[in-house]
Amino acid sequence: MAKIVSIASGKGGVGKSFFAANIAMSMVSKGYRVLLVDGDLGGANLHNFVGLRASGRGLYNFLRDKTSLADVILESSVGVHFIGGSGDVLGMAHINNFEKLKILNQLKRTDYEYVILDLGAGTSYNMVDFFNFSDKRVLVMTSEPTSIENSYGFLKVALYRKIERLLIKDKRMEDICKKLRSRSMNYPKVADIIEEADGIDSKATDDIRKILKNYNVGLVLNMLKFKKELNIFFGFEKVTEKYLSIAIEKLGFVPYDIKVSDYVKNLNPYYSAVGKEQKLYFDEIRDILVSSMRG
Ligand SMILES: Nc1ncnc2c1ncn2[C@@H]1O[C@H](COP(=O)(O)OP(=O)(O)OP(=O)(O)O)[C@@H](O)[C@H]1O
Ligand SMILES: [Mg+2]
């Protein structure tokens, strides 16, 4: 079974696709069998980051034409196996639960060791569910306050949905679930949810704690310009521990490089083109990522 690693951010334009493509290339260079998938159902552009001009038939055709997953896999010039997003933006933005699960289950059942799933921005149920179904969850963030806030917001929405999906199986938890589904999500802290659920059934508390323990979130800082921005790691770690009761893993950082957009415009895959020093940023993250998934 392949391990699914999803790449999310909340805020758009922080470098999810850039990171997903480069970490995939770094893994391939080390000999791992990797499939890179564009899960950005609205604005697929991941193909450009691995040197492909077009996204191919992609996930949309896999669903609508009932073809096999193997039929929609492309191979880029740098050896990355790739599945594109969607040629039909409206169609893909409205996939249902059954289709979502079909995509995820088939990805898991491939022969690859790792599936890198690049997600779109925002907190739509599609993105949140892909994130929650993954074996490893990577948040890409820049040092901008809005990026930090949106990453936290995304994480909270995703985690609360995961807890809601657990509690909904028990009719007595209906009130809590209703509150979790509301826009304001009502509970400032996960500990508040646990306290209320505990009053109804203490077994639910154990199940929520299990979710928290296994949530597996790693953080990557992108477009770093100054070393002191690394302090963001510690601030974010403290807040997620205090309010969401989860431990965040610091995976590493990628510096800002003014040449990135030229590489992308010229369909020149960044990782393959740059020198050892720049590759190392991705290689270090790759090694931490892989070892954390081996347990
Ligand atoms: N480390 C970096 N240094 C310089 N530029 C970068 C870096 N990372 C990403 N960029 C630039 O930022 C732009 C946005 O990156 P990217 O498309 O990967 O973001 P995204 O989070 O996937 O966006 P979206 O939410 O729209 O999918 C890209 O055009 C890329 O050129
Ligand atoms: Mg993107």
Write down how many β-strands occur, each being a DSSP E stretch of 2 or more residues: 8
* Sequence stretches where pLDDT stays below 50 over 5 or more residues: none
- Strand order in the sheet with the most strands: 3-4-2-5-1-6-7-8
The CATH superfamily of the domain at 3-143 and 216-238 and 247-287 appears as P-loop containing nucleotide triphosphate hydrolases
Rg from Cα:
19 Å
Bound small-molecule species: adenosine-5'-triphosphate, magnesium ion
CATH architecture of the domain at 3-143 and 216-238 and 247-287: 3-Layer(aba) Sandwich
**How many angstroms does the end-to-end distance come to?**
15 Å
Oligomer: single chain
Q: Note the overall shape.
A: globular
Q: What is the top-level CATH class of the domain at 3-143 and 216-238 and 247-287? A: Alpha Beta
Helicity, as a percent range: 40-55%
Beta content comes to 15-25%
Biggest beta sheet summary = 8 strands, mixed
Order of helices and strands: EHEHHEEHHEHEHHHHEHEHHH
- Our count of helices gives 14
| The CATH topology of the domain at 3-143 and 216-238 and 247-287 | Rossmann fold
